[in-house]
Specification:
With about 375 residues, the chain is of the alpha/beta class. Helices cover about 40% and strands about 20% of the residues. Helix 2 (about 60-75) links the parallel strand 4 and strand 5 (about 80).
């Protein structure tokens, strides 16, 4: 793992971004922001999954009016996502959001952006300059013919300069494309030119399956090179899945550890239990746990305590019984029909985990 690039530290509410702070995981609600109850309910689920920062769309004045109630009920910082109408940005800041995201291609004229920056400065909140391949300024798009990495970076630098000239520097930057290589190239390029924290991700990545793969590849490359201070996995799926995938990427790279790490064998003709369905069920049961333990699900004794000896706790099938082991040592045996139930009991009572980490027990 290469050393992380040192960037300027800013704050989104109490969450530190950049300057060596832990990489934060973000998501975005897909509810109608005007529906306060539904939006807060989804934010609650994101909080339980470990989401550090949540962004909400603000398409009109009614959505902006709902923000104050949403912010008051959320336990994590809320960012307003603004397009086209600068008045919505002003209204959102007045509502108490912890940051705003603006898109260069539809931000409006300099006078309007100056009003937004002034209001953000007064409230001491950050601004994310969110450059996307689908919303580049017309002159930049004409210059490069299509959204190249160089085009994305030129847009970002132009808008950074604009905001800096307004004596504002609580900035973070994102430069996203649905094309993985373009995104990687753009972040590599911009990271050499600025010291502001970078929010990374692959925009419009796709479904939970394909989008997770594309995000893991693109974000994994950048994170391994020390680029990235906060992340969002953009999926056509439940936002909670974005958070789960985000943490899994960071976990794989040793950048953050939150919640259990589940390992399971790839299955073969030796398996004595249904590894696929059991592993899936356990993964679902572990959502909401915080303790970073390694949990193993193995189909037979060959892949059981031996190959999974580094697991804090694991289970494996055998011809007649199922076994539960800790650090490679068998501690209990059960009839296979009772194995999953007993295994979950062991996880729930594992060392200091206890009932504190049961799903749904944490606000």
């Amino acid at each position: 793992m290469k050393r992380r690039k040192r960037t300027k530290k800013i704050h989104v509410g109490p969450v530190e971004i950049g300057g060596g702070a832990p990489i934060s995981v973000q998501s975005m609600t897909n509810t109608d922001t005007r529906d306060v109850k539904a939006t807060v309910s989804q934010i609650r689920r994101l909080e339980k999954a470990g989401c550090d920062i949540v962004r909400v769309a603000v398409p009109d004045e009614k959505a902006a009016e709902a923000l104050n109630k949403i912010v008051q009920q959320a336990h994590i910082p809320v960012i307003a996502d603004i397009h086209f109408n600068y008045r919505l940005a002003l209204q959102s800041i007045e509502a108490g959001v912890h940051g705003i995201r603006i898109t260069p291609g539809n931000r409006g004229d300099k006078r309007r952006i100056a009003a937004v920056v002034k209001k953000a400065d007064e409230r001491n909140i950050s601004i994310r300059i969110g450059v996307n391949s689908g919303s580049l300024e017309k002159d930049i798009l004409k210059k490069y013919s299509h959204p190249t990495a160089e085009a994305l970076v030129e847009s970002a630098l132009r808008n950074i300069n604009l905001i800096e000239n307004l004596s504002f520097n609580q900035i973070k930057v994102s430069i996203k494309s649905s094309d993985v290589q373009t995104t990687v190239d753009a972040y590599r390029l911009v990271s050499k030119k600025i010291r502001y924290p970078l929010h990374i991700g692959i925009t419009e990545a796709g479904t939970a399956f394909s989008g997770s793969i594309r995000s893991a590849i693109g974000m994994g490359i950048l994170l391994e090179e020390g680029i990235g201070d906060t992340v969002r996995v953009s999926l056509s799926a439940d936002p909670v899945e974005e958070v789960r995938v985000g943490f899994e990427i960071l976990k794989c790279l040793g950048l953050r550890r939150r919640g259990p790490e589940l390992i399971s064998c790839p299955t073969c003709g030796r398996q004595q239990i249904d590894v696929v369905s059991i592993a899936k069920e356990i993964e679902e049961k572990l959502v909401g746990f915080e303790l970073p333990i390694k949990v193993a699900v193995m189909g037979c004794e060959v892949n059981g305590p031996g190959e999974a000896r580094e697991a804090d706790i694991g289970m494996a099938g055998s011809k007649k019984m199922g076994i539960i082991f800790k650090k490679g040592k068998i501690i209990k045996k059960y009839p296979k029909k009772n194995l999953l139930k007993e295994f979950l009991k062991e996880i729930y009572s594992f060392e200091e985990v206890g009932s504190k980490y049961r799903v749904g027990s944490r606000e």
